[in-house]
Amino acid sequence: MLHLETFTQWVLGPGHPTLPALLILMLLDVLTRTIVQSIRPRVRKEHFLRTLLKKILLWLMVIAAHQVDLVLSQQQTLRNAVAYVLLGNELFSIVEQMAKAGVPIPEPLRRAIQALRGTETEKPEKPEQAQEKTRA
């Protein structure tokens, strides 16, 4: 067990509450997605594998941030910043999954998530409209 702890500290850096919290929120996100899939079976099963692969990529980002902190002789500043952003992202994802399952989400929270994600409130622009904006 000592070797696993040593390896984990070498890869992720010293312990910080954001790391187990991030792991727990990622697991909760996967669990809520699984529940939504059972409630709404039209969700494709390959999304589950894609979700797991994305979670692995997010942990690779945390590892990369720690390595940059080491090079810059930082006190895990970048790693913790990345972890905070990912924590917020996972929390939003969990709330979105709950909304898909039919759980009532308070309207202010729903609007905040839509604004941060840029979904449902913005319609995709046509290429002509985007060009007009750049000319103006």
UniProtKB/TrEMBL annotation:
Coiled coil: none
Compartment annotation: Membrane
Membrane-topology descriptor: Multi-pass membrane protein
Stretches for region Disordered: 115-136
Keywords from the UniProt entry: Membrane, Transmembrane, Transmembrane helix
Keyword Cytoplasm on entry: no
InterPro entries: Phage_holin_4_1
Transmembrane portions of the chain: 20-36
Basic and acidic residues composition-biased segments: 119-136
Pfam annotation, one family: Phage_holin_4_1
Membrane found in the keyword field: yes
NCBIfam families per record: holin_tox_secr
Name assigned to this protein: Holin
Organism: Deinococcus roseus
Biological classification of the source: Bacteria, Thermotogati, Deinococcota, Deinococci, Deinococcales
